[in-house]
Amino acid sequence: MAAKLALARMTHTVERTFDKVRRGPARDDPIIDCYGGYTTATQIIIRGRVLAKARAISAEGPQSIWRNFTDFLNLFYTDELRDVVITTTDGQARTVTDEEGFFFLTLDATAPNIPQIVEIQAEGAAETHHVPILSSHDASFGVISDIDDTLLRTGAFSLLRNLWTSSTGNVHTREIFPDAIKLLQQFAEHDACFFYVSSSPWNLYDYLQAIFLRTGVPRGPFFLRDLGISDTQFITGTHGDHKTDAIEKVLLANPYLAFTLVGDTGQHDPHIYADIVVRHAGRINQVILRRPSDADLPDEVTKDIARIRDAGTPVHLDFDYRKLLDDVAVE
C-alpha cells in the first residue's frame, strides 16, 4: 500500500509539472464538455469537464481502421483546465473545476419545478452551455444498466478484444445488441427512467452518447470513470468499486423508486448486483443478465446468482434478452 501511494504521488507530481509546461496560458475561451444533468429528491446535479479546446466526434460514416484508431486516441488527448469557475447564468449555483478539470454543480429543485434546460457558463468563456436535465420524478421505476457486452458489443471479457473493438470502430459502426434495444424500449413504454453505469472513461461520453442516439437507446444519465492520477491514487479505483459507488448514488438519489439491474456475466456484474440486492432489501425488483458466450458459468458467478435469488429477487439469465421479454417485470 505504501509503495502504491508513493507511486501515485510521484506520478501525480510528474503529470502536474508536464501539464504546466505543455498547456501554458490556454484559458482564453474554455470549453465545457458537459455530461448532462439528473435529479435527486431535492436537487439537480450537473457534471462535466472544462477543456482548453473542443474534441470532435467524426461525422463520417465508414472509414479506415487507421482513421478510427487515430480518432479514438484523440478522445484521450485533452487539455483539462483546473480552478475554472462554473456558474448558472441566473447566479443560483457556482462551483470550481478540480485538478483534472471536472466539475460537479448542484441546484436546489423539487418536483414539479424541474426545468428541462439549465444554462451554465465557464468563467472567461464566450458562450453559455444549455444543459438538458433528465428528471426521474415522474418515472414508475428505474433501470440501471451496464454498457459493455450488456448493450454494446465489446468483448470486455477479453482485454485484447475489448481494446481492438473500441479503438478500431466508430460511432457509425459500433453495434448495440438489437435485443437490448427492444428490452429497454419495452421498459420505456412503461415509464421507466434509465441510468447507465460503465468503467469506460469520461473521455468516451460523447462517443457513447452518439452511439446510443443513433440506435434508439432510451436517454439517461451516464456514470463513467475518471482515469486520472491523483496524489493519493494511481489511476482510479477498481472496476467493482466504481460500479458499486455509481449504483449507490443512483439509489440514494431516487429513494422512492424500485430498480431493475441489467448486466452480463462476462465481468463482475453478478457479484456487484448480489451485494446491492443484499444491502438494499426491497429496492431491486429483478436482475437481468446476458451470457456473452456459451462457456460454463464460473462457480463464483453461479454463487452470486444464487445469492440474489436467495434474497428473494428474480434473476433472468439468457444469451438473448428477447427470450425474456414475456417474463421480465415492467414496473
Layout of secondary structure:
Elements (H helix, E strand, L loop, with lengths): L1 H22 L7 E9 L3 E9 L13 H10 L10 E4 L5 E3 L5 E7 L8 E6 L6 E6 L6 E6 L12 H10 L9 H11 L3 E10 L3 H11 L6 E4 L13 H15 L5 E6 L4 H11 L4 E7 L8 H12 L4 E4 L13
Parallel strand pairs: 1-7, 8-9, 8-11, 9-10, 11-12, 12-13
Antiparallel strand pairs: 1-2, 2-5, 3-4, 3-6, 6-7
Summarize the structure.
This protein is of the alpha/beta class and 331 residues long. It has helices spanning 2-23, 65-74, 159-168, 178-188, 205-215, 239-253, 269-279, 299-310, and strands at 31-39, 43-51, 85-88, 94-96, 102-108, 117-122, 129-134, 141-146, 192-201, 222-225, 259-264, 284-290, 315-318. α5 (205-215) links the parallel β9 (192-201) and β10.
- Percent of residues in helices: 25-40%
Strand order of the largest sheet: 4-3-6-7-1-2-5
Q: Tell me the β content.
A: 15-25%
Unreliable spans: 1-19
Second rung of CATH, namely the architecture of the largest domain? 3-Layer(aba) Sandwich
Give the SSE order as H and E letters.
Answer: HEEHEEEEEEHHEHEHEHEHE
Count helical runs: 8
- Write the CATH fold name of the largest domain: Rossmann fold
**How would you state the average pLDDT, rounded?**
85
Number of strands: 13
In CATH, the homologous superfamily of the largest domain goes by the name HAD superfamily/HAD-like
- Shape descriptor: globular
Features:
331 residues, alpha/beta, Immunoglobulin-like, Rossmann fold, 2 domains, seven-stranded mixed β-sheet, six-stranded parallel β-sheet, 24% strand, disordered N terminus
